[in-house]
Automatic annotation (TrEMBL):
<feature type="domain" description="LysM">
    <location>
        <begin position="33"/>
        <end position="77"/>
    </location>
</feature>
<dbReference type="InterPro" id="IPR018392">
    <property type="entry name" value="LysM"/>
</dbReference>
<dbReference type="Pfam" id="PF01476">
    <property type="entry name" value="LysM"/>
</dbReference>
<feature type="domain" description="LysM">
    <location>
        <begin position="107"/>
        <end position="161"/>
    </location>
</feature>
<dbReference type="InterPro" id="IPR036779">
    <property type="entry name" value="LysM_dom_sf"/>
</dbReference>
<protein>
    <recommendedName>
        <fullName>LysM domain-containing protein</fullName>
    </recommendedName>
</protein>
Length: 221
């Protein structure tokens, strides 16, 4: 289930992409069965039930965020435990970050289930909580709510993200055939929040899907 945000002036897929590849690319294969997620499921519980790696499962299903799966979602199951001890598909919740802005944008993030300001700032964008809460002209929802860092926010509402002055990125499109959004954020040297913002509502897909991404972010005169 996904909804793609229309992106202006995208160049052709695979144009001027950075070198490198997603970790363990194409090494995890699917068995001829799927699993339907229930209300109390988590990715680690499902992975343990089938004796496979968490990131094997996340990458095979092209999850936006391995920490978020929803009831009724159908997941492909890996044939075996290929990389059971690999957790690099998850985003790092960097509570020690000192960054106060992101390069170029996008400047609006749409809240996912379970999101807090702390998670959005530290994990999605690798910036400080204070930089988001003190953002000038914050969205009406956040301004009226005045949430604490760990208050769970309403799904579908928006948060403004501070952008560093005089910065720019190149925009392109890639095909997500395998991996999580964090894998591609690492590959393109951007934050996972930037990819999420460009691809509004994307959660997972059982097949390859085109997504927008920024890269070559830098300061400009």
């Amino acid at each position: 289930m996904f909804l793609l945000l229309t992106l202006p002036a995208l160049v052709a897929a695979y144009t001027a992409l950075p070198s490198g590849s997603v970790v363990n690319l194409d090494l995890v294969t699917a068995r001829n069965a799927t699993y339907t997620v229930t209300a109390n499921d988590t990715l680690p519980l499902i992975a343990a039930r089938y004796g496979v790696g968490e990131c094997d499962l996340a990458r095979l299903n092209r999850l936006a965020d391995p920490n978020y799966i929803y009831a009724g979602e159908e997941l492909l199951i890996p044939t075996r435990a290929t990389f059971p001890d690999d957790y690099s598909c998850y985003s790092t919740n960097n509570t020690e970050t000192t960054n106060v802005c992101i390069d170029a944008g996008p400047h609006v993030y749409t809240i996912m289930p379970g999101d807090t300001i702390q998670k959005i700032a530290n994990e999605r964008y690798n910036i400080t909580v204070e930089s988001v809460l003190n953002q000038t002209a914050q969205t009406g929802y956040i301004a009226a709510l005045a949430p604490g860092p760990y208050d769970v926010l309403e799904t579908g509402e928006t948060v403004k993200i501070p952008i560093c002055n005089s910065t720019a990125c190149t925009m392109t499109q890639f095909t997500l055939g395998y991996g999580t959004l964090q894998d591609f954020a690492t590959l393109y040297d951007v934050t996972v929040g930037q990819i999420m913002s460009l691809n509004l509502g994307y959660n997972h897909s059982t097949g390859a899907v085109p997504l927008g991404v920024l890269y070559n972010c830098e300061s400009v005169a």
